[in-house]
Amino acid sequence: MSTLVGIAPGRRRKDRLMRGVLAATTLIALVPLALILYELIKRGIGSWSADFFTTDANGNFLGDPGGIKSAILGTLEMVGLATLIAVPTGIGVALYLTEYGRAGRFGSLVRYFVDVMTGVPSIVFGLFVYITLVLSGAGGSGFAGWKGAVALALLMLPIVTRSAEVVLLLVPDSLREAALALGAPRWRVVLRIVLPTALPGLVTGSLLAIARGAGETAPLLFTAAIINGTSFDLSQRMSSLPGRIFADVGQAQDRLVDRAWGAALTLVMMILVLNLLARLVSRRSRLT
Amino acid sequence: MEAGSLTDPRGSRSGLGRLPLTQLQDRALRWVLKGLAALILALIAFFFIRLYIEAQPAFAKFGVFGFTFTNNWDVSRNFYGALPLLVGTIVTAGLALAIGVPVAVGAALFVSELAPRQVRGPLTIMVELLAAVPSVVYGLWGVFVLIPKLQPIEQFLSDKLAFLPFVGGHVPGPNYFIAGLILAIMIVPIVSAITREVIATVPADHKEAALALGATRWEMIRMAVLPYSRSGITGAAMLGLGRAIGETIAVTLVIGNAPTIGKQIFDQGYTLAAVIANEFGEAANNPTHRAALIAAGLVLFVLTLVVNGLARWLVRRAERGKVAAPVADIQANAAAAGG
User: Fold this and answer.
1) Which ranges in A96-144 belong to alpha helices (H)?
2) Distances B137 to A94, A98, A236, B100, B250 between C-alpha atoms, Å
3) A134, B49, B269, B284: least buried by Cβ within 10 Å?
4) Which residues lie closer than 8 Å to B180 by C-beta, 6 or more apart?
5) How far apart are alpha carbons A17 and A21 in whole angstroms?
6) Any idea what DSSP says for residue B78?
């Protein structure tokens, strides 16, 4: 007769301790999120009012500093244009990588540089657009909303590509082979079979890229600039929510800082909604 | 011969061949997509060349090494040596790694190996939500919440720990440490996400083998999970480093924007990215200043390319499982653990 030997007390203690440590790190990682959301809601909700969303920053030295209407519209317009550029291009590159360039040197080179591009600091994209489009006065003006959109698109492109590639790789090869065996030409397989199958995943990836672009300040500073007053014209200087917040924080006046908190809450809400949408769409995907 | 005609639709059996129009469409789609892919490579090359050309006036005046490693950034004298910025970038990114990576890896291990199945999803989503908060909002929070709350604590630490190198003296509100702390928060989601991916590639066999031999959960993590994913976790940390180096707006708001090398971690400083964001407006009419800022951008670009290139290589290698089978490691660890 022999009994099972239990785990030595020392080892058991160490196991408990380390489990506790790992659980604690998870909590520590989540504390800042809770703190930031708490402050955002506490300080931001006070500045929300009908006027806040329907008036523009006026730049007055005293009194009501105005709201964030044009900043919201500017963000929507620029991010919208950036999406129109980045999403088709990014999905196109991802299609090349999964449908034609899975093996081979060119494919892996592109894949590697897309990865590297995700790590390029956003301010460098801003500098690049400044050099190529703003300095040269392309389109007849210096700073312009559409140039900000180009900078955002450059930033979003690798994100869209990476996420799209992951999703396209999940489309089963048997589906492609079945279509090809039925005599469908390659282009039809790609556009009619692969793309629709992967659609929910592609939408999810694009929404996350849009959320990322919407929060970026650095690429807009010297491409779209930051202005007071109304701006809807993509060929002119344009406000944006992140730009508005950045400008207001730098002013260190209570009434402007209040507006910054209100704008920040608005921006974070927009981004959270995009994230939520992305998760809802991805639930509809049958690919796992 | 039949096989040949089957694989080659243009062969003698034209009945099986594609219509010319279809062939054209096939080729068109292929080349359009390939063109888009080539565009990425062209863009990066074009980036580099344009930045270099525009930075040329600064490099011509101060030399590439002179610009990068001279400790003197003086806008009023129109003299630009980027060493204080480089040091600031490295110090803040280093602090971010020191604080952020243990937390991120710990959280990843907890979520993938220890947490009850029902809470894994929600925990993952919450950690990833940290990445959804924009940089400028971190900056806003840093300036008006974190700096005033932490300043007394930092001053206390600075006084009590003055015997350590790089600690001591008066603590200003914005400083390297605050910037490093905010960067640490910002890199946690990416480091944690990649670490989770890498941990997921650890074969279940290894983990089950460790448990079957009587290892506790922690011993299983230490002997089976960590050795196998070590290089992938290193890659994840380096991706975080790349993020921290390039982060601009949050850092600009909380680092104090003093173009000098701080003597301690609670001193004010500057980073490459922050100097560009801050001084670009005033530099528009001064060609040397503008070139110097673009040169700073180029240094930043090259730095992130090197760090990210290395990081991606490590993560790729780990995820493809090309890491040498860690059986030897397991045996060595088991021996070291002493049963």
Assistant:
1) 105-118, 122-129
2) 32, 37, 26, 19, 8
3) B49
4) B91, B92, B93, B94, B95, B96, B98, B99, B265
5) 6
6) T
Tokens for B312, please give them.
């991606």
CA nearest neighbour of A78 among A5, A168, A143: A143
pLDDT digits (tens, 9 = 90+) for B221-271: 999 999 999 888 998 999 899 999 999 999 999 998 888 888 888 989 999
Query: A123, A210, A220: best mutation site toward chain B, by most B Cβ within 10 Å?
Result: A123
What is the pLDDT at residue B160? 86
Question: What whole-number distance in Å separates Cα of residue B87 and Cα of residue B33?
Answer: 42
CA distances from B71 to B78, B279, B282, B288 (A): 14, 18, 22, 17
Band (pLDDT 50/70/90 cuts) for residue A3 is low
Helix, strand, or coil (residue B74): strand
Mean pLDDT of A144-170: 93
A18, A116, A121 ranked by CB distance to B273: nearest: A121
What is the rounded distance in angstroms from the CA atom of residue B183 to the CA atom of residue A217? 16
The Cα–Cα gap between B197 and B127 comes to: 14
> Shortest CA distance to B271 belongs to which of B38, B11, B78, B93?
B93
Q: For residue B320, give both structure tokens.
A: 């493809």
- What's the pTM value of the predicted model, to 2 decimals? 0.88
**ipTM score assigned to the predicted complex:** 0.91
Interface test with chain A among B7, B21, B29, B125, by most A beta carbons within 10 Å: B29
| Contact of B82 with B272, CB cutoff 8 Å | yes
